[in-house]
Amino acid sequence: MFALIDGNSFYCSCERAFDPTLRGKPVVVLSNNDGCAIARTHEAKDLGIKMGEPYHLARRRPGLEHVIWKSSNYALYGDMSRRIYEVLTTLVPQVEPYSIDEMFLDFTGINDAPERAAYIRAAVLKATKIPTCVGIGPTKTIAKLANAVAKKDRAGSGVCDLRYADQRASAYGELEVGAVWGIGPASAHKLKAVGIATIADFVAAPDEEIRKLLSVVGLRTLWELRGTSCMSLSMAPAPKKSLAVTRSFGRAIEEWPDLEQAIGAYATRAAEKLRRHGLVASAMQVFLQTNRFSKMDRQYVNQGSFGIEPTADTFALIKTATRAARHLWRDGYRYAKAGIILLDLVPSREQPASMFPSIDPERSATLMRTIDIVNQRFGRGTLRPGVVAMRPRWGMRRANLSPQYTTRIDEVMRVRA
DNA sequence: TCTGGGGTCCTAGGACCC
DNA sequence: TCTGGGGTCCTAGGACCC
After folding, report:
1. Measured in angstroms, what separates residue A304's CA from nucleotide C11's C1'?
2. Which of A158, A191, A226 is the last residue of a domain?
3. In chain C, which nucleotides are within 7 Å of a protein Cβ?
4. Based on the domain organization, do A346 and A391 belong to the same domain?
5. Are A140 and A166 in contact (CB under 8 A)?
C-alpha cells in the first residue's frame, strides 16, 4: 500500500512560510529570468493565471493588479523539501522522494490509512507550514491519482482514499484518462481515437490493444490502475545518468562572441555540478536554437553529441563545448536558447578502467590492440587513444519542435579530433 | 523586448559482426 | 539479377514526468 504526499502550490507555500503577509493573497512564482509562471496559489489560479503563462503578458492583464509575482528561490524550496522529508521519516518506515514536492510513503499494513494520512498532513504543516494533500492506493499510480483527486477537492479533507475497488470504480468513471500519471497528451489522444475516454474505459480495455498503442509503459500503467503493483518503493535514489545546463537568453544573441561567452559559462556550471555530484562524463551534447515562439524569425535548431574524455577538466570542457557550438553556429539567426548536456555519467571514484568508458572493456581492449598494431606499422603517434576516444559521433536531430519550426538540415557536421 | 530548466524511459532502425 | 539470419550496440526521436 502506498501514499503520495505533495505540497500544495509548493513554491508559493514555501514563500508564504517565510512571509506570512502573503497568506490569502494571489501569489505566483516565476521561472528563471522571470520568464513564466511555474507555481500559483489557488487565489492566483482563480484569477485565470495559467501554468507556464508568460509573465510579460500576464502582468499587464486587467484584473491581475494585486497579484504578487515572486522570482524563484530554489535553494529555499530544496531546503523546505528536505525538512518535509525529515518529518516524514519519523512517521513512516519508508519514504521515497519523487520530486521536490512529492514523496511516496510506505503504507503497508496500516489499517487506518486515511486517519494516519491526516495525522501526517498535520505534522508536516506544524513543522514546516506547508499545506499538503495525500492520496492512498494499492499502487503508486493509484496513489498518485488519489492525490490529484484530493487536491481538486479544495474544501475536502486533503486526503483521498482509493484503496478499494468500489472507491476506484466511481472515481474512474468520472476522470479522463489523461489525468493518469504516465498518460500524457499524445497517449490520451491516441486512446480517444479508439474510443477510450475515461479511466474506466481504459481499465476495461484489453492488454494487447494497450500494448500496441502505448508500448509496455502504457501496459504497466494499465495494470497499476487495476491494482497490480508494478512499481516498488525505492529508498536509494537512482544514480544520475545525465546532467544539463540550459538557459534561454535574456535577449536574442546574434553574434558569435556572445554565444561563446554563454557556452563557456554553461560549461563551467556543468563542470561544477559534475564535481559536486562526484561524477565524470564521457559524452557531451550541445544544442542551439532560435526563439520558437517568434513568428517573424527564421527558425534554426541543431545539436551535436560526441564522446569526451572522462578526465577532461573544466578548461577542456569549455574548449570542447565551445568548439561544438562553433560548428553548430550559423550566421544570420537570432538565437534564443542554448545548453550543454553531459551524458554517460559514472562516479569519479570508479574511473573507467579503459580509455573508452562508453564502450565495454572488451571492445576497448580490442581498440587498444588496434592502435598498437597501427602504430607499429605506421609509426608511433599515428593513432592516439585520445583521438579514438574523441571519435566524433555527430548526429543531426530536430529537437522537439512543431513541424512549422523545423529547419531543413542537409549537412552532417564533423568535428576533427 | 520579454515564453523554464531540468530529468527518465522506450522503440525503431542502421551499423556491424559472425 | 539474385541477395541469409541472428545478435548486439548505438543513435535519433518520441513520449512522459516535475
Report:
1. 11
2. A226
3. 9-18
4. yes
5. no
Predicted TM-score (pTM) of the model is: 0.83
Residue A107 (CA) to nucleotide C5 (C1'), in angstroms, measures 51
Q: How many domains does chain A have?
A: 3
Average pLDDT over residues A137-163: 97
CATH number (domain holding residue A267): 3.30.1490.100
Residue A250 counted as domain residue: yes
Which nucleotide's C1' sits nearest to the alpha carbon of A98?
C18
Residue A366: pLDDT band (50, 70, 90) is very low
- pLDDT band per the 50, 70, 90 thresholds, residue A237: confident
Question: Which residue is nearest to the C1' sugar atom of C16, using CA?
Answer: A182
Residue A99 shares a structural domain with residue A57: no
Nucleotide nearest to A6 (CA to C1'): C18
Predicted confidence band of residue A3 (pLDDT cuts 50, 70, 90): very high
> Does the pLDDT value for residue A333 go beyond 50?
yes
**Strand B nucleotides, any atom under 7 Å to a protein CB:** 1-11
Distances (CA, A) of A187 to A152, A181, A200, A217, A225: 23, 11, 16, 11, 16
pLDDT of the residue at A46: 94
Compute the half-sphere exposure of residue A353: CA atoms within 13 Å on the CB side of its CA.
6
Residue that is last in its domain, among A44, A73, A102: A73
Q: What is the pLDDT of residues A71-121, one digit of tens each?
A: 999 999 999 999 999 999 999 999 999 999 999 999 999 999 999 999 999
Please count the CA atoms within 13 angstroms of the CA of A214 that sit on its side-chain side.
Answer: 28
Judged against a pLDDT cut of 80, whether residue A401 lies above it is answered with: no
Residue A195 and residue A216 in one domain: yes
Within residues 245-304 of protein chain A, the ones with CB less than 7 A from nucleic strand B are 245-252, 273, 291, 293-294
Report which residue is nearest nucleotide B1 when distances run from CA to C1': A251
**Residue A237 domain-assigned?**
no
